[in-house]
Amino acid sequence: LPIVLQLVAQGQFRVLKLPLGFIKVLQWFFAIFAFSTCGSYSGVFRMSVECKNRTESDLSIEVEFEYPFRLHQEYFDAPTCKESNKERIFLFGDHSSSAEFFVTIGVFAFLYTTAALCIYVFFFEKYKEKNKGPLIDLVVTGVFAFMWLVSSAAWAKGLSDVKKATDPDAVITMIGACKEEENHCREVHDPVMSGLNTSVAFGFINLVLWAGNLWFVFKETSFFGGAPPLQEKPAGADAYGEKGAYEQDPYASNQGGYQPNYSQEGYDQVCVGLGHIAACHHDNIPTSVCLYITYRGHSTGRAMASRGPPLPSPIRCEVTGSR
Q1: In the 8-state DSSP scheme, what is residue 70?
Q2: Which of 124, 94, 93, 106 lies closest to 38 in space, CA to CA?
Q3: Could you tell me the strand order of the sheet in which 316-322 lies?
Q4: Which among 218, 16, 205, 208 has a CA at the least distance from the CA of 137?
Q5: pLDDT in tens, 132-149
Q6: Which interval of the chain is the signal sequence (predicted)?
């Protein structure tokens, strides 16, 4: 229990308020509704066969069927209206493939959304690291959106066939005694199909949720805003030695090091840029080293001091050559 409380305390539950996390929560709930309403269904319908000889009649023939709707395995015994004999009649059709496919997609969608929500809450920073998490999420979301379309359409067609196969009026035509005019057959109770109708509706709702969530997952990838802007490399780490001393400039004077000219009134310094060499001029500058950092080839930039107080401004810099 303490470990659970610690994980909850460290979780970033604010992500669930964002469209990315909130839609995942909806997907989690509607996936449960979809596979549970279909996978837990069981139905029954009743018929009556009234023979000319009332003693041979059966006024309550009950037929049960359930998921996965292998109706060709479901049967009932009906009177033949001939000396109390019975005939065994099987329903028609096997609709298990579409029903099981629909339930399978629902279960896998539930498992994936559960894992995704855990990652969103507890490992969201790692999820966005190197763009791998959003890319995987985008691909899986697209696959599930397509699978919900296929499975929902297939199950809608399968449900239509199940309704036809379990229609009492259609089943009565399969009873031999009902083909004789002297006998009277009728339906007593129709099967309740509201749960299965709801499962189809939940399937298409899941399709909308997963297809719509593609946009919000796509926004988390690097493709949405393009490549991130390039950051100018700081000059301080490369321009200074291990102890903060100024490294020798390959473009300095022939004497092999930086040689400031103190005889000038304006204290000239050699500035090292990312792509240029510039001369930096300023009056009354203390003994320090000026690093002039150019910005994409322009002669405007900033100055830094490796020793002494910061350089006063304004500083006038001129490009004197290219590296």
Answers
A1: -
A2: 106
A3: 268-272, 276-281, 316-322
A4: 218
A5: 888 999 999 999 999 999
A6: none
The greatest distance separating any two alpha carbons of the chain, rounded to the nearest whole angstrom, comes to 134
Angle at 148 between CA 193 and CA 207, to 5 degrees: 90
Residue type, position 195, single letter: G
8 A C-beta contact, residue 60 and residue 45: no
* Beta strands across the sheet bearing 42-50: 58-66, 42-50, 184-189
What are the residue ranges in the chain where pLDDT is below 50?
A: 226-323
**Nearest to 192, CA basis, from 36, 32, 41, 35:** 41
Instruction: List beta partners, residue 45.
Output: 63
Helix/strand/coil percent split, the chain, to 5 = 45, 20, 30
Q: Convert the pLDDT of each residue in 141-193 to its tens digit.
A: 999 999 999 999 999 999 999 999 999 999 999 988 888 888 899 999 999 99
Amino acid at 299: S
Q: How long, in residues, is the chain? A: 323
- Copy the structure tokens of residue 151: 């499975």
Other CB atoms closer than 10 Å to residue 301's CB: what's the count? 21
Alpha-carbon gap, residue 9 to 260, rounded angstroms: 59
The residue among 47, 40, 1 whose CA lies nearest residue 174 is: 47
Q: What is the Rg, in whole angstroms, of the alpha carbon atoms belonging to the chain?
A: 40
**Prediction pTM value:** 0.65
